[in-house]
Amino acid sequence: MSGAHLEIAKYVQAGGIRTNVHDVGEGPPVVLIHGSGPGVTAWANWRTVIPALSIDRRVIAPDMVGFGFTERPSNINYDRDVWVNHLVDLLDAMEIDRVDLIGNSFGGALSLAFAIRFPGRVRKLVLMGAAGVDFKITEGLDAVWGYEPSAENMRKIMDYFAYDRSLVNDELAELRFKASIRPGFQEAFSSMFPSPRQRWVGALASPENDIRALQHETLILHGRDDQVVPLETSLRLHELIISSQLHVFGRCGHWVQIEHATGFTRQVRDFLSDAEGQTSV
User: pLDDT band at residue 207, thresholds of 50, 70 and 90?
Assistant: First the structure.
């Protein structure tokens, strides 16, 4: 990976947006879409699972527009359509027709919306702690989206993410706080989900009739003890998506891919490699 920082990989022009993309491994392409925490990057979100997933696949993990080290265009109004358009522009720029798509939280909502809008460009779908249906905003999500930069506030937010508090220490909180105050990061972030924030849960949600019409094989993963996006969202998605399976991790918060990295990669690799029941869209 190029650059002085592991979070910076290579740049791709996607619809005129200079996009930071991790592109690792060879094989069938799988795209990982990160969540919406303050200071988040694709690398911060997916670093624990990229090595295992890239053993036999081409793993593509972009910083979505407005996040990380991707360009933040002036006068942009961030919404679900902007992010879906950015993703399809990225795939076009990289000349990739069809992918497996893995979305975490906010990224799960985008993955759902992308599969609904471009069904032929998605083979299989993995939704982890996903938004994408309407729910009453949690205290945790309200705090995450309402983050005001300080090391103390970052520590409080990270306590919402993890079930295992040993994963959250002052050093990690300080690193994430410093990430959140890089030039342009907080300015863009604070413009995305202003108060009152319940409306943004609805804005990220896809119509349930559209979700119900999805024919893609879908793996739904969720931490039982998630304080950011409630387990009920994945239960509802499992009800709506006809070709779905659901796995719930006990003693796990919003960070399935970090708290249960081995279980996450095993579930995902088995699901993506299983040829039975695949649906052509």
Answer: very high
On whether the CB atoms of residues 225 and 251 are closer than 8 A, the answer is: yes
Q: At what angle do helices 170-180 and 185-192 cross, to 10 degrees?
A: 90
105 is catalytic: yes
Kindly report the pTM of this predicted structure.
0.95
Distance CA 271, CA 131 (A): 21
Spot the catalytic one: 226, 234, 244, 260.
Answer: 226
The pairing of strands 217-223 and 122-128 is parallel
- Contact indicator for 38, 144 with CB cutoff of 8 Å: yes
Instruction: Please give, one letter per residue, the 3-state secondary structure of the chain.
Output: CCCCCCCCCEEEEECCEEEEEEEECCCCEEEEECCCCCCCCHHHHHCCCHHHHCCCCEEEEECCCCCCCCCCCCCCCCCHHHHHHHHHHHHHHCCCCCEEEEEECHHHHHHHHHHHHCHHHEEEEEEECCCCCCCCCCHHHHHHHCCCCCHHHHHHHHHHHCCCHHHCCHHHHHHHHHHHCCCCHHHHHHHHCCCCCHHHHHHHCCCHHHHHCCCCEEEEEEECCCCCCCHHHHHHHHHHCCCEEEEEECCCCCCHHHHCHHHHHHHHHHHHHCCCCCCCC
pLDDT tens, residue by residue, 65-103: 999 999 999 889 999 999 999 999 999 999 999 999 999
Active-site residue, 254 included: yes
Residue 260 is a catalytic residue: no
**Choice among 22, 216, 222, 254 that is catalytic:** 254
* Integer angstrom CA distances of residue 22 from 41, 227, 259: 11, 29, 22
Catalytic annotation, pick one of 105, 180, 234, 244: 105
